[in-house]
Structure formats: structure tokens, C-alpha cells
Amino acid sequence: MHFSDIFKKSFLEGFASTEITTVTVLSAIAVASAIALYIFFVYRVVTRKTFYSKNFNISLAGITVITAALILTMQSSVVISLGMVGALSIVRFRTAIKDPMDLMFLFWSISVGIICGAGLAQVAVILSIVVTVGIFILDRLPVARAPMILVVNASDLDAEEAVTNAVKPFAGHYRVKSRNMTESSLDLVLELRTAQGSSLVRAVMALEGVTSVSLLSHDGEVTF
Predict the structure, then answer these.
(1) Are 175 and 212 in the same domain?
(2) What is the pTM of this model?
(3) CB 150 within 8 A of CB 167
(4) What's the domain count of the chain?
(5) Which of 135, 183, 209, 212 shows the smallest number of beta carbons within 10 Å?
(6) Same domain, residue pair 134 and 161
(7) Which 3-state string (H, E, C) describes 26-84?
(8) Phi and psi dihedrals of 148, rounded to 5?
(9) Greatest pairwise CA separation for the chain in angstroms
(10) Which residues, other chains included, contact 216 with Cβ-Cβ below 8 Å and sequence gap of 6+?
């Protein structure tokens, strides 16, 4: 017997086929489906204030169940497992992820499918609980308030100093983000934080030469 024969024999013995019963398949798929439904509702709740894609959410649930079935199939034979690895390696996914949270949910779904397919349902349940608690705790942590944007349109080309002087009593810190000047008008964009938005707009609007004032708030990212 050659060394190559010994190596092949030991390799195949190390990855011996596992008999998968119908009860095992149904149990794994049932647990994966239950957790997939749980992920579906958690994703819906977490993304209530952002862009929500129902199709993506359905895909998360489907990926969990499909991954569990794949892992079960790969356990039945080493030949099938190697064939699936080769087949899946040529697949290319080009769907853009719009939110980093979507990437986390995608990885969560795949992980649960792998764990359920491996027969470790208790690990999948504990993982899902820990991830959910972590998401809601971190989501409620206080963060810095996003700055507001003050847009001022003036017919006086020298109105910038008057505008900044009017802003100072209402905002401890401000920054001029943009200046746009034409032959007959001046447009200013200021970034600031204030709790007296209405009074600030009235004070700036009362300035001579100011034609319009807009104060905008947003729920975007906060930079430090």
C-alpha cells in the first residue's frame, strides 16, 4: 500500500459520512425557521426609523433556513460537501449593502443557519438572545446631538458679520460651512447646535438685508 493510499484512507475515515435521519432534518429546519422568523421581526423593529426593505428582510429569513439545509447536506457525505464548496465558490453577490446594520443581520442569519445545521440549536438561541439584547442596549446609549444647519439668504453682500453676531447669543459654537456670493445676493450655510431655534430664526430674519432664513435638523451621523 502506497503512502497516497494511506493518506486517502485516513482522510476519508476522518470525514466519514453521517447518517441524517428525517427527525434530525425536521428538527434543525424547524429551529432554523423559528429563529429566522425572530430575526425577521427584530430587523423590522430595529429599522423602523431608517430605510426598510421588506425584500431584504425576507431574504434574511430565507438565508437562515437554506444555510441550515446546506450544512445538513454537507454532513451526509464528504463528496457532496466538497462539491458544494466548489459550486458556492463561483457565486458572486453584487447587491450593495445600504446600511452597516444590514451586514450584521446578514451575518447573523448565516451564522444561525450554520449552527442549526450543525445540531447546536441551543447555541443559536443563546446567540440570538445576546445579539438582540446588545442591539437594543447600544441603540439606547446617549450620543451627541446632530448639529443643525442654518441657511441664510441676504441681499446685502456684507451681511455675514451681522448674521454671525445674531447667531452667537443662541449658539455657543457655530461654524460657517459655505459662502455663496453673486452680484446681488449672499448665501450662507452655518452648522450649529441650539435649543432656541425659533428665536434664532426670528433674530436673523430681523436683520437688515436678510431675505430668507431656514433652520434644518437631521438624523444623520454625528462627527466629533
Answers:
(1) yes
(2) 0.61
(3) yes
(4) 2
(5) 183
(6) no
(7) HHHHHHHHHHHHHHHHHHHHHCCCCCCCHHHHHHHHHHHHHHHHHHHHHHHCHHHHHHH
(8) -100, 160
(9) 100
(10) 148, 149, 150, 151
